[in-house]
Design a protein that fits this description.
alpha/beta, Rossmann fold, five-stranded parallel sheet, 6 helices, 5 strands, binds 4'-phosphopantetheine
Length: 163
């Protein structure tokens, strides 16, 4: 059994991410869910807001902790001694990018392997991007994210919602 890290943008965390977190937490001794602090992007939620949302949805999982990182994932993995990187695979369209990322990370951090969990079918279509887009137009996101996350998304988007 190993210590795993599940990195991502989580802007915001969705039911698809939560499904992967629950399943990975059952497989590995400990799981760190880590938010990328990418200064080149302008996310909807700050890193602190994303970390806090993840803490709220993972409250009932004792072997899961939440962190953030900046820079190269491979450096973060090496510095923290993670043995496994978790990524979710939704569809074949994810595969090429994920394969390239896994192979690059393995060259840069040879002690760690990437393990892919296939997204549960009910979340195969889901992404943070679509959640943000649906919410921005006032659509119903209750099937996509937990209520406490939906409230924060609507609160954040309210000032730019169309009349
Ligand atoms: O949730 P996302 O946006 O699909 O997550 C992508 C993420 C954060 C895992 C990836 O962009 C990443 O690891 N970025 C850190 C910079 C890095 O290591 N880039 C090289 C990857 S080959």
């Amino acid at each position: 059994m190993a210590n795993a890290v599940y990195p991502g943008s989580f802007d915001p965390v969705t039911n698809g991410h939560i499904d992967i977190i629950h399943r990975a937490s059952r497989i590995f001794d400990s799981l760190t869910v880590s938010v990328l602090n990418n200064k080149a992007k302008s996310p909807l939620f700050s890193v602190d807001e994303r970390v806090n949302m993840l803490k709220d949805v993972c409250r009932d999982l004792p072997n899961v902790r939440i962190d953030s990182f900046s820079g190269l994932l491979a450096d973060y993995v090496t510095e923290n001694g993670y043995e496994v990187v978790i990524r979710g695979l939704r569809a074949i369209t994810d595969f090429e990018y994920e394969l390239q990322m896994a192979q690059t990370n393995r060259k840069l951090s040879p002690k760690a392997d990437t393990v892919f969990l296939t997204t549960s079918l009910e979340y195969a279509y889901l992404s943070s991007t679509t959640v943000r887009e649906v919410a921005a137009f006032g659509g119903d996101i209750s099937l996509f994210v937990p209520d406490l996350i939906a409230d924060r998304i609507y609160a954040k988007l309210r000032p730019i919602k169309p009349e």
